[in-house]
Amino acid sequence: MTEPLDTHQPLDTDQPLDTDEARRAAGMRVRREVLGGAHVDRAVAAVTPFTADFQDFITRVAWGDLWQRPGLARRERSMLTLAITAALRHWDEFALHVKAAVHNGLTDEEIAEVCLHTAVYAGVPAANHALAVAKPILAELRGSTPAG
Hints:
By secondary structure, this protein is mainly α. The chain has 2 domains: 20-68, no CATH class; 74-142, AhpD-like (Up-down Bundle). 66% of the residues lie in helices and 0% in strands. The protein has 7 helices and no strands. It has helices spanning 20-35, 37-45, 52-63, 74-87, 91-103, 108-122, 124-142. It is globular, with a radius of gyration of 16 Å. It starts with 19 loop residues before the first helix and ends in a 6-residue tail after the last helix.
């Protein structure tokens, strides 16, 4: 298990993020910190000419800009991302961000609380499925079997 990141500070960089190249480099760094190097390596290895522009876009915009803004800590961004992906029923992305949320310092109880909060605003079926997706991932990260 990796230690949680310092989730209260945006990425320190000695260069302004005012060019695509600066955002791309910073975005790749943040993407690796949040999602893990193995995931990013697989994503980069899977890039094709058809998907290259999209991968560049999410690296620059999502990771190189949005995830570095000073208004929210990474753990808060993780909570929002979990709630939004559950509400929209994007389960693969939700599963990926359960792991990211743990890297960003969220506890299993906080992740469950996000799912409970999601039930009221996005519907009980979405929250119920989110809990079912999160449970085995959290158990794997904790080295245990899923509890009821």
